[in-house]
Amino acid sequence: MEKINSTQNAKIKYWKKLQTKKGRKKENKYLLEGWHLVKEALMVDAKIEYLLVTNDFRYFDDIINTEIEQVEISSEVSLYLADTSTPQGIYAVVEMEENRQLSIDNLAGGWLMLDGVQDPGNIGTMVRTADAAGLTGVIFGEGSADSHHPKVLRSMQGSQFHIQLVNADLMEVATLFKENHIPIYGSELNEDARSYREIPATANFGLIMGNEGNGMRNDLLNTTDANLYIPIKGRAESLNVAIAAGVLMFQLKA
């Protein structure tokens, strides 16, 4: 097993760049940090190029027999690569999955669509909830945070390996849904919108959630079959977008 102890090592500098959007896009790879996420990637046979581990990694015996090339790194290198303050001592260099092109052949199921959702924690929670609710996938529209951002990866907690994540133009997606008679719903903080409880659960649908501060774009609001409202019973002005998405997904998914 190769051992690397210096943060100045060329490979380490290369892998560090995978923590940036520019680096990920250029190399078509990303860095996965932490045992839970690496274990999920191993379980689904993700395209892992390297496993990077410290010699005191707690679960070292669980990975020693894998056929994936492993590199032993020092604690100093681990801290250098980490996006967290207390790294667990394991990383995976993973090839990005090919972006799926949506068509009538693969539209089945429920789809959550993100219109300019930017907070990594919100996105991760929404992907995990979509997974829990039995949706097919999540579509990242323009202005939404990068699905391979380290904080988004951690927040998704492995659900990114259970459902499909797609980057697409939401106006094009909405058109595709409507052409194939699949209902598509928006979300709107507006009492004149339809109460979410009026919408029956269905097997196939699209649900668009908008930006944390500005909501959905007007052009998207005008393309939906209905824009849904969650009545507020207390004194709070609104729900967090991830909470609202959870309520709507579980209501809509048959």
TrEMBL record:
GO terms for molecular function: methyltransferase activity. Belongs to the class IV-like SAM-binding methyltransferase superfamily. RNA methyltransferase TrmH family. Keywords: Methyltransferase, Transferase. This is RNA methyltransferase. GO terms for biological process: methylation. InterPro entries: Alpha/beta_knot_MTases, MRM3-like_sub_bind, Ribosomal_eL30-like_sf, rRNA_Methyltransferase, SpoU_MeTrfase, SpoU_subst-bd, tRNA_m1G_MTases_N. It holds the Pfam family MRM3-like_sub_bind. It comes from Dellaglioa carnosa. SMART domains: SpoU_sub_bind (SM00967). Residues 31-100 form the RNA 2-O ribose methyltransferase substrate binding domain.
